[in-house]
Amino acid sequence: MPDILPDRHPAPEGVHTAFDAVYSWNYEPEIDALRTLYANALERQWIALKQLDWEREIDRESFSRTFSLGGVPVQETRFWRGLPAETRWEVARRSASFMLSNFLHGEQGALMVAAQLVAAVPHTDAKFYAATQTLDEARHVEVFAAYIRKLGCVQPIAPSLKALLDDVLATDDWKKKAVGMQVVTEGLALYSFRDMRNATEEPLLRELLTYVSRDEARHTGYGVKYLSAVVPTLSDAERAGIEDFAFEAARRLVDSRRGGTMRDSVFELWREAGVDPQVAFAELAKERATIAASMARTGGRRGPIRGFVIPTLKAIGLMSERVAARYDEMFRANFGEAFRPVRDDPTALPDDLEAWVERAS
Ligand SMILES: [Fe+2]
Ligand SMILES: [Fe+2]
């Protein structure tokens, strides 16, 4: 068996889960949008070993030029260009392997949740679709593992992502599972993969992210179509419970009051590569104008939660005034009073998510 962590695989780890496996005795199409999505997913299957050229070496130069620091385009600054080429490569390699490792671990979580959904959802159409997603997620684990193997280092899962996946795996309510996976986690994945896909000029990475993101666009589509059909049938109390579950999932990713953020972990990697994060931070602060101009050129980056997850929750009717106030409190506490309310965020998602993946902004 290929080995991505030759000497230091952590031991397998269990999370206790309990939910009802549900038989559906109606085999006729019931939610047409899901049948269509299932048919679409069958058409769009791909084979990672055949479709991507794994013989290709990673193009180090374009790889080190195109990574970003949590959406901040550091590579366009004088500070970054002034670092020795070897240091730039080390920072890029470690930072990108952190991101990609978390993509990989997240894909494993998605694989297990998609398999749970096959059993947990009460509609045949939704079981069929979740079965195709299970296969998609296996392929995603396969391709990220293969790419990281070429980079030569895999990082452990970030604590916030692990906690999110544990919550989604453990809940016994299929609607919470669906919102936690198909809306919050898939939204995070789709936005982040697309962001990296459009930022990188490394050919193999760009190609694999294009394939993976197209699948993720369908997975998000499943969440939107399924939950949009189900949410209007729920009682107020049930809907509030699902809103709160989605909020807690998002909070795992955003709220630094709960401990180390992803960005803290990335700065630690800079230190390992020989760059003092505090010096880097101070130097980058001096170049704020360059960074702002670059971000304005690319349309700015709103981040996966504001840029995608919140609009999705709004679109499916899971953003009441009550829960919006909880988001506002969290964003203000983390990003300052000037942060505008969630009410002002867009409600509309791109019509064709697969096409959106390959649009530049
Ligand atoms: Fe995936
Ligand atoms: Fe997915």
Helix and strand run? HHHHHHHHHHHHHHHH
The set of bound ligands, ions and cofactors reads: fe (ii) ion
Oligomer: single chain
In total, how many beta strands? 0
Q: Please give the alpha-carbon distance between the first and last residues.
A: 40 Å
Largest sheet: none
Structural class: mainly alpha
Proportion of helical residues: 55-70%
SSE map:
Elements lengths: L31 H12 L4 H4 L8 H6 L12 H4 L3 H36 L3 H28 L7 H12 L3 H26 L3 H28 L5 H19 L7 H11 L4 H10 L1 H10 L5 H13 L5 H15 L17 H5 L4
Helix pairs in contact: 1-6, 1-9, 5-6, 5-7, 5-8, 5-11, 6-9, 7-8, 7-10, 8-9, 8-10, 8-14, 10-15
The protein binds fe (ii) ion (2 copies).
Give a brief rundown of this model.
By secondary structure, this protein is mainly α. Helices cover 66% and strands 0% of the residues.
Textual characterization of the structure:
This protein is mostly helical. The chain has helices spanning 32-43, 48-51, 60-65, 78-81, 85-120, 124-151, 159-170, 174-199, 203-230, 236-254, 262-272, 277-286, 288-297, 303-315, 321-335, 353-357. The chain is built from 16 helices and no strands. The longest helix has 36 residues, at 85-120. Residues 110, 137, 186, 189, 216, 219 line the site of one fe (ii) ion (FE2). Residues 110, 137, 186, 189, 216, 219 line the site of one fe (ii) ion.
